[in-house]
Amino acid sequence: MVIQPRQEKVAAIVLAAGAGKRIGRSKALLPLGDSNFLDSIISHLIEAGISHIIAVISPEVSTKLDAKNYNVDFALNGEKHADMWSSLLIGVAQLWNAVGCLIIPVDHPFVKAETFRLLKESFLRQPASIIVPTYQEQSGHPVVLPYDWAKTLPSISVDGGLRTAIRNSGLNVCRIETNDSGILRNINEQKDLEIAP
C-alpha cells in the first residue's frame, strides 16, 4: 500500500485538557457567542487552511461534546491535574507527516484566522525556525514548532515549560509582528471573559 502524503504541512495541537480551576470549569466548553472556545479555535484554524488538527481534551470534556460533529482528531489527557506540558506531549505523539506544529492553548479563543494563516506561512518559509507571534512587541500564542524538534520534547526537562524549552532549543526564533491583540488575551478568570471583546 502506498501512503499518500498529506496536503497540509503544518498541523495544529489545541491544548484543551485543563480543568480551568480559577474560572471554575473547563475552558474548552466556555461559551463564546453562539459557540464555545474549542469550536471557535477549530473554526479559525480550518479557515486558515490548517485541517490536520489534534485537540487534547480531558475525559470530562469528552463526555460533553459529540465527537462526530468535529472534523478533528481527539486525544485524551487523563491526568487529574493536567497541565499544558503533558497535553503538548500527548498531542505531539499523535502527529504524523507534518513538518511543523502550531500550538494553541484553548484559553486564547480570540486569535484571528488571519493570524493562524500568517504564522503558518511564515513557518513554511523557514521551517527550521520556531515562529512566535508578537503584538506591540509582546510575545503571545500560538507558536509554531518544527516537528523534528517537537518530537524531542519528551526528553526535555519541563522546568519552565515550553517557553524555557524554546529558549534553550538552539533554534532560530523568528518573531512575527501581528495586528492581533488576541495572541495576548488569555482567559483565566471570569473577569477576563467579561472584558474580552
Can you put this structure into words, describing what you see?
The structure is a single chain. The chain has one domain (10-195): Spore Coat Polysaccharide Biosynthesis Protein SpsA, Chain A, CATH 3.90.550.10. The chain contains 7 helices and 10 strands. The protein has helices at residues 37-47, 59-62, 84-94, 113-125, 147-150, 161-167, 190-195, and strands at residues 10-16, 31-32, 35-36, 53-57, 73-76, 100-105, 130-135, 138-139, 143-146, 173-177. Helix 1 crosses helix 4. The longest helix is centred in the middle third of the chain and has 13 residues, at 113-125.
Taken from the alpha-carbon principal axes, the silhouette is globular
Specify the CATH homologous superfamily. Answer: Spore Coat Polysaccharide Biosynthesis Protein SpsA, Chain A
Work out the helix count: 7
In which range does the helix fraction lie? 25-40%
Class by SSE composition: alpha/beta
DSSP strand count: 10
In short:
The protein is α/β, with parallel strands linked by helices. The protein has seven helices and ten strands.
